[in-house]
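Summary for the funding panel

The consortium committed to producing paired sequence-structure records for every protein in the target list. Below we show the first two records in order, beginning with the earlier of the two.
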Amino acid sequence: MPIAESISERLIHDAILALQELSDVFQHRREVLAREAGLTVEQWRVLEEIQGHDFMPSLFARERKRSRAAVSKIIRQLLDKGIIETSVAAHDGRQRTYSLTAKGRAATEKLRRARRRAIEKVWSRFSPEELEAFTRFSQKLCAELEALTSSLYAPHPAPTRSERNVSHG
């Protein structure tokens, strides 16, 4: 193996390991923040959605590739904790609207403050150039990985009638 190829391969593996470590550290940090607010990471995600716009559990489940039952369980947990409340939608009696209670708003504010502290302690130490380079690289890597995944796992189109006839002689 040529030296240039082995160096490049080593750099790629080092980059993958660094990305895995960053992902693990980031996930652990989210778990710690959520726990400090009395939540799980999944509950935090639901709260963010409820706070952001008209929350629809079925849509949230589909977007997160979770079962409706799993999302319903998280909603029940948040209701039991008194963090969210639900009511019948004014425009459609078949739908429910979800909103944060005072306790829920306090929990999300605690999370917001903790995030701001992390930004001040960690992210603000990087130069604008470093942040821009990281952002560009991350976006490019995401796009490449998504393209690879969709090309490998995209459903294969059904063969046309002429293709089926050709394959059967």
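The next record, for a separate protein in the list, is shown here:
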Amino acid sequence: MTGKHNQPHKAHRLARIGFALATAAMLVAPASSAVAESKLAPAKAAEAAPAPAAVIATPAATAPVAAIPQTLEQDVQEFEAIKGGTASFYGRELRGNRTASGERFNPDDLTAAHPSLPFGTMLRVTNPRNGDSVMVRVNDRGPFHSNRVIDLSEAAAKEIGIARMGSGKVELAVLSDGTSDE
């Protein structure tokens, strides 16, 4: 199945694979270059020169460290707790259907349905049983059950460990935009 809703997921996966390959190449490069140099060096020269007993490194000159900003508030995300409760998830059977925001549902995206929060709101959903949290974006309306506070995508439910049970208690917190009404 092809389509625009699949491309970001594939691109994200390819980026992770590329990062893993680059990391592996960096780890292997020093070892492989040492092996290559020993193969290129003449055998007689290696036999004639005695091996050093120990190599003592001289301390390198330290470069000045960049100044750390006095306030780290710009990098800290602030959350405002809202009413938690029972979360459920909806999965593969709804793939490709339109959400209330108009986008197509992808169970592999970290999204959620909430009855009243504006579309695009970022929520931190925490499973209090194991402490796992996930950031989700509200893109749909629901759940339409009186005992549930949020519907998560399958990927989000797996991240916090409620996918196997089908539902679970969660704590919700809205990512604040950094502005205040004061």
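Regarding this second record: Residues 79-175 form a domain with the Barwin-like endoglucanases fold (CATH 2.40.40.10). The two ends are 50 Å apart (CA to CA).
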